[in-house]
Design goal:
Blueprint: E1 6-7, E2 12-13, E3 15-22, H1 32-48, E4 52-58, E5 62-69
Amino acid sequence: MEPNYFKTRRGTFNLTVHIVLVTKYRRKVFKKEHLEFLNEAFKSIADKWDASIVEFSGESDHVHILLTYPPHNTKRVNC
């Protein structure tokens, strides 16, 4: 993965997060159709936030999302 830097008047940023969503008790509930739907849903949300999905993958019990976003969206991320 090549870094994608966001440049502003005051600095240069590379904000990337790795999100893992796990089912309760690691139950195997996700099928191929579910993963495709989640991928499209996360892409549409990322477009609204001016972010981009670097990588999306999943198995039957969890989903991985690697997301990069510009610094003006930091107010929307809750820790």
